[in-house]
Amino acid sequence: MKSRKLTLKTIITVQILVVIAFCGAYTLGSKESQQEFNNVFLKQISYPEVKIDRKVPLQVEPFYDDPSVVTDDELAAVLKQVRPKFPRKRMKPNHVEHALRTWSIQSTFQDPSIVSGIEMRDFLIDHARFLTSWGDEISPLLVEEPAGISIRWGSQAGGSVHHDHWLASLTEAGIHLDEPVFGPSRRDMDINDVIQESLRDFRLDEREVEWSAMAFGLWIPPVKQWKTVDGRVVSFDQIVKRLIRGHKRFGVCVGTHRVYSLMLLIRLDDEFHILSKPVRAEAYAYLERVRDLISVCQFEDGHWPANWMDGKSALTDPQEIPDYKNVIATGHHLEWLAIAPKELHPPHEMIVKAAKWVINNTTSHTEEEILQKYTFYSHVGNALALWRKTHPATFWKDWQKTHPYVPGADDLQGANDGIEARKPKL
Fold first, then answer.
1. What's the Cα-to-Cα distance from 249 to each of 51, 91, 230, rounded to whole Å?
2. CA-to-CA distance for 312 and 28, rounded, in angstroms?
3. Which SUPFAM superfamilies match (predicted)?
C-alpha cells in the first residue's frame, strides 16, 4: 500500500484552518482566559479593570441637624479658622487634601488669600500646577505607571503623607470620574486611571488601608470584590477584617480613622450590600465597643483623650497628652458619630460637651497656630458642619452673603463675640 504524501498546499490550508480556529477560540474565550494566554505565551502583563458605573462618587450624608451641638455662629467661627489660607509656594499636598475633603471642589472665598476648591484640585491633578508651586527641586507628586497614575506618598517634601489619601480626599471633594489628570509627560489619563491603578496595586498587609477603603467604597459599589495585578481577589469583607484587626490604638489619628472608614462602609452596605452579614455584624460590634469606650472616658471639660481606647482608665490614670492629640480624638469621634445611627452614640450630652470643647479650643487659637496643625483642625470643621446636616462650602457661601469680606477687618467678629458670651465664666 502506497503512503500518501501531503502537498504543500494541503499543509498550508490545514495551518490556516488551525490559526482561524485558534483565533476564533481566543476571541470567543473569556477575558480571563485571554489574559492568561497573554501572560503565559506573549509575556504580556495584564492590567485588570473594575467597571465603574457612576461619573461622580457616592456621598454618605449625615443624619442630624442639631443646633444644640453647634450653632450657626459657632460653625462660622470654626470654619473661619480652617479656611485654606495656604501660601501658594510649596503648598503641602497633605494640607490641600485635607482642605479639599472638608471644603470640596465647589468652595469659593471672597478673601483672595484663601485657596479656592478649583485651585486646590488643579494643584493635585496637574503636574504643571504642582511645578508652579514647588519647581523641579523635588520629585513629581503624580507618578506615571504603565497603565495608570500613582501618587508619591510618604514623609518626603511635596508628597502625599498617607497612601491613597490623595484619592480619598478628591473623592470626598466630589471629583468626576473623567476629570483629566496631567502627569509629567502624559496628558491622556483621568481619575478613573488613578482609581484602577490603586485597585490593582492594593495590598491587605499595608500599614494604612483606611483611605483605600473610603475611596473604593465611594466609587465601585455594587462591585464588592476585584482582582489585583497579581491575580489576588480582594473584597470589602477582607478590608473590614483588616480594619478591625489589632488593638484600637493602632491606625491613623489615634485609631479614629479606622472607625470612620468602618462606619462609612456600613452606611454604604445599607444600600449596596457590599458586605456579608457576618462581617457586617463584626464591624457593627466593633463600633459598639468604640461607643462604650468613649462613653466612659470623657473628661469633665468635654474632650475625649487620645488614649480613648483605654476606657475608664484614661480618666483614673490619665496620661500627659499634647493638646492637639485630644483635638484629633474629639474632632474625629464627632465626625464619625455624625454619620452613625443613634444606637451607636454615647449619651447625647457627651456629644454636646465634646463639641463645645473643640469649638472653644479651635476658636481660641490664631489662624497661624491652626495652620501648624491644619490637618487635625480640618476634621473639626467638617464634623461640626455634618452635625448641622450641611457642607462647609454651602454654609460658607450663604454666610458670606450677610457677612461680606472686608479687607483688613475681622469678617466674623460678631460670631466670635457670640461664642465668648456663651463661654462659662471661671
1. 36, 31, 32
2. 64
3. Terpenoid cyclases/Protein prenyltransferases
Crossing angle for the helix pair 72-81 and 374-387, to the nearest 10 degrees: 160
DSSP string, 392-414: HHHHHHHHHHHS---TTS-TTHH
Helices 236-243 + 277-294 axis angle, to 10:
30
DSSP 24-92: HHHHHS-HHHHHHHHHHHS-PPP--------SS------S-B-TTT--HHHHHHHHHHTS----STT--
Quick one: how many helices (H) and strands (E) in the chain?
A: 19, 6
Pinpoint the alpha helices (H) of 113-153. 117-125, 127-134
Q: Is the peptide bond before 222 cis (omega within 30 degrees of 0)?
A: yes
CA distances from 262 to 67, 214, 340, 360, 368 (A): 26, 9, 10, 29, 33
Q: How would you classify the pairing of strands 142-145 and 180-181?
A: unpaired
- Residue 279: HSE in the Cβ half-sphere, 13 Å Cα cutoff: 20
Which residue is associated with the grid cell 509627560? 185
CA distances from 327 to 67, 111, 211 (A): 21, 27, 20
Is 234 in a helix, a strand, or coil? strand
Name the 3-class secondary structure at 408: coil
Dist CA 230 CA 322 (whole Å): 43
Tell me the three state secondary structure of residue 227.
Answer: strand
- The grid coordinates of residue 268 equal 454604604
Closest CA to 200 of 175, 178, 231, 223: 231
Decide: helix, strand or coil at residue 291: helix
